[in-house]
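User: Is it possible to get a 3D structure for a protein together with its bound compound? The compound here is uracil. I've pasted both below.
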Amino acid sequence: MTGTVRINRFLAEAGVAPRRKADILVAAGRVRINGNRAATGDKVDPTSDRVTVDGEPVARIAEKVWYLLNKPAGFLSAVTDDRGRRTVVELLPPTPGLFPVGRLDREVEGVLLLTTDGDTAHRLTHPSFGITKVYRVLVAGNFPDSVIRTLKNGVDIAGHTCRIIDAVVTGRDQTTTTLELTLAEGRKHEVKELIKAVDRLLLRLERISFAGLTAQGLKPGEYRPLTAEEVGRLRELASVKDI
Ligand code: URA
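Assistant: Yes, that's possible. Here is the predicted structure of the complex:
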């Protein structure tokens, strides 16, 4: 089955009860899936399964929309801007409730998800979920292993220890180094702050992957809808725990 969600999430998103109360309804035997008594942790396919609570059918979750945009430079990761600057939603089909999942700075290009699924989006951007992102960075000068080790061990940024998970040097010339940095944090300006913390000058920043999704085949400004499998995987990643 593709695009399944846990029964407690399904009930929460359908407005029946918040997730913990939904668990209680399930445990009390008041919830049925296709006529069978539901158990805690059961999964449903919102597009095809029939769910009832106390015998009353629960309306299926409205289809949530998910896009992957290869964000071009010059667009704000926002829905609107009171200063009239261009925003990423202008690049997508007009969709009520569509917003970016987290943010890329205005001049930064690369993978940006947009969705109408607020709950999953919030979880995907919450630092405690540790969703991995890979950034390609171009820095001035060299970037020795000792600096990579410092970033792996963690540096203090405004009272938080921030670290990278991995770094791979993918290019070097006489004046610059290109690296791919993997992070699982989700803090504002995290790459800029990390590079600054090790006294390096960042020349260019691009996100090449978010939760394993890449912009392969998309030019800057182009987008595609996520597949049901991809959405299912994101929901899985976002459903590991309650926050
Ligand atoms: N880190 C930054 O500094 N900027 C971004 O846009 C993304 C990560």
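The helical segments are 7-13, 19-27, 118-125, 145-153, 190-197, 228-238. The chain has three domains: 5-58, 66-127+213-237, 132-210.
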